C-alpha cells in the first residue's frame, strides 16, 4: 500500500492517491467525510475549523461504492481558496507580503535556507498540518480494509500540557463515540475538565499547548511485521509513521520508557495457553510487539506532540531574514492546541501501516481473497 499527498495549506485543494487497495471494498464518501470531520474536532482549534469545510471529491478508483483495484484518488477542496487565490496563485508573479520573521520551532527558517527562498510562506504552506486532512482520507480507506479483518483502531488524549490522565482507563472499540464526544477526546471525564481549563488558560495569554495521545489497535492478527530485517520491523514502521506527523517529537510503544527502568523479571509479558483461545500474554507491557512482530495483544503506541510553534502572542525571539535584526516572529492565526486532532491522525498512520502489512502478509486482488487468506492463516494458528 502506497500513498502520496500533494497540496498547500491555503492552496486550491489537497489531493491524495492511494495505490494497492484490493478490488471490491465497499466505501462511501460519507465514511471518508466522517473521518475528516473527526479530525476537525477538539477544543482549542482555531477559527479556520469553524468556517472552512473539507469539500470532498472521489476522483478515481471507486465506482458504484466499491474499489476497483486501481489507484484511489481523492481531492479535498479548500473552501478558503477564493481568499487566497491571488496570494497562492501558481501563475508567474510575486507576493507583496513576503514573510521574513521565521517562527522558532517551525520549518520556516531551515526550509528557507535549504530551498533558497526569501518568503517563509513557500515553506510553511506545505509544512502545515493541514496536509493531515489528505492523510486522514487515505486512512479512512485503510480503516475500512482493516475492519474486513476485524481490526479496529482507537485513540484518546492522555496528556494536555501538564494535565495527565492516571493511565488506568483505556477505551475499547465500542468507546470511540464517547471519546469523540469529549471536547478534548479524553476518556476520563474528571481529567477532561482540567484539560479544558488548561487550554483556556493558555489561550488567554496567547500561548499554545502540546500533549500525548494513546493509539490502540484491537484485533490485530499475530505476526504482522517481521524480525528478519530492520525495515520490516513493525516497531520501526510505526515509529516512522508517527514521527512523520507534524509537531510530533516522541513515540513510545507499549510501556517502552517505563520498562527501561525495571528488571527483566518485571519487564516481559508472561506467555499463557488456553485451549479455547490459544496463546496469550498475562500483561501487555510490550504494547503488542515482540521482535518487530505483532503478538495478537492490543497494539499500543503513545505519541507526543510539542506545543504548536505558531503563537497568538509571538514572544519568541527570532531574526528578520532581510535586516538580520532581532525581532519576534510574524503572527499567523493558529490553534491553541491540535492534540485532539493529532489523535485522529495517529489512528490514520497506524491504520495505513497495518493495512500495508496486512496486504503484504495476506495479499489478494479482491477483498474477499484477502479475507480468505487472513482467515485461513488465523485458523492455521490453532494449537500453534
Ligand atoms: C495550521 C494553522 C491553521 C490551522 C491549520 C493548520 O490554519 P490557518 O492559519 O489558516 O488558520 O487551522 O489546520 C487546518 C487548516 C486543518 O485542516 O487542519 C498550521 O499552521 O499548521
UniProtKB/TrEMBL annotation:
This is Chorismate synthase. NADP(+) binds at residues 39, 45. Belongs to the chorismate synthase family. The keyword Aminoacyl-tRNA synthetase does not apply. Homotetramer. Gene3D superfamilies: Chorismate synthase AroC (3.60.150.10). It is an enzyme of class 4 (lyase). Keywords: Amino-acid biosynthesis, Aromatic amino acid biosynthesis, FAD, Flavoprotein, FMN, Lyase, NADP. This reaction introduces a second double bond into the aromatic ring system. The gene is aroC. Reduced FMN (FMNH(2)).
Amino acid at each position: 500500500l502506497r500513498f502520496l499527498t500533494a497540496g498547500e495549506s491555503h492552496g486550491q485543494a489537497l489531493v491524495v492517491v492511494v495505490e494497492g487497495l484490493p478490488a471490491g471494498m465497499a466505501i462511501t464518501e460519507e465514511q471518508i467525510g466522517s473521518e475528516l470531520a473527526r479530525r476537525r474536532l477538539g477544543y482549542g482549534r482555531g477559527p479556520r475549523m469553524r468556517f472552512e469545510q473539507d469539500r470532498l471529491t472521489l476522483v478515481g478508483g471507486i465506482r458504484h461504492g466499491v474499489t476497483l483495484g486501481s489507484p484511489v484518488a481523492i481531492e479535498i477542496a479548500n473552501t478558503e481558496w477564493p481568499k487566497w487565490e491571488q496570494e497562492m496563485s501558481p501563475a508567474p508573479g510575486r507576493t507583496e507580503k513576503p514573510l521574513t520573521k521565521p517562527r522558532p520551532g517551525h520549518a520556516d527558517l531551515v526550509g528557507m535556507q535549504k530551498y533558497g527562498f526569501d518568503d517563509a510562506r513557500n515553506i510553511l504552506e506545505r509544512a502545515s498540518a493541514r496536509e493531515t486532512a489528505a492523510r486522514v482520507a487515505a486512512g479512512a480507506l485503510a480503516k475500512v480494509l482493516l475492519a474486513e479483518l476485524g481490526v479496529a483502531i482507537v485513540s484518546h488524549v492522555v496528556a494536555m500540557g501538564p494535565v495527565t490522565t492516571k493511565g488506568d482507563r483505556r477505551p475499547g472499540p465500542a468507546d470511540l463515540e464517547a471519546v469523540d464526544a469529549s471536547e478534548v477526546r479524553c476518556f476520563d471525564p474528571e481529567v477532561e475538565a482540567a484539560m479544558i481549563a488548561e487550554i483556556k488558560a493558555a489561550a488567554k495569554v496567547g500561548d499554545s499547548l502540546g500533549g500525548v495521545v494513546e493509539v490502540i489497535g484491537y484485533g490485530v492478527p499475530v505476526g504482522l511485521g517481521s524480525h528478519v530485517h530492520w525495515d520490516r520491523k513493525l516497531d520501526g514502521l510505526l515509529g516512522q509513521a508517527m514521527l512523520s506527523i507534524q509537531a510530533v517529537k516522541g513515540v513510545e510503544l507499549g510501556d517502552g520508557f517505563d520498562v527501561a527502568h525495571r528488571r527483566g523479571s518485571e519487564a516481559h509479558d508472561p506467555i499463557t495457553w488456553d485451549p479455547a483461545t490459544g496463546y496469550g500474554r498475562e500483561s501487555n507491557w510490550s504494547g503488542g510487539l515482540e521482535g518487530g512482530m505483532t503478538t495478537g495483544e492490543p497494539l499500543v503506541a503513545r505519541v507526543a506532540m510539542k506545543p504548536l510553534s505558531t503563537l497568538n502572542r509571538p514572544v519568541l525571539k527570532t531574526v528578520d531574514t532581510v535586516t538580520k535584526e532581532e525581532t519576534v516572529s510574524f503572527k499567523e492565526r493558529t490553534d491553541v492546541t491540535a492534540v485532539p486532532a493529532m489523535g485522529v491522525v495517529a489512528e490514520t498512520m497506524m491504520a495505513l501501516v497495518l493495512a500495508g502489512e496486512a496486504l503484504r502478509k495476506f495479499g489478494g486482488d479482491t477483498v474477499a481473497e484477502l479475507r480468505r487468506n487472513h482467515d485461513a492463516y488465523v485458523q492455521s494458528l490453532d494449537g500453534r
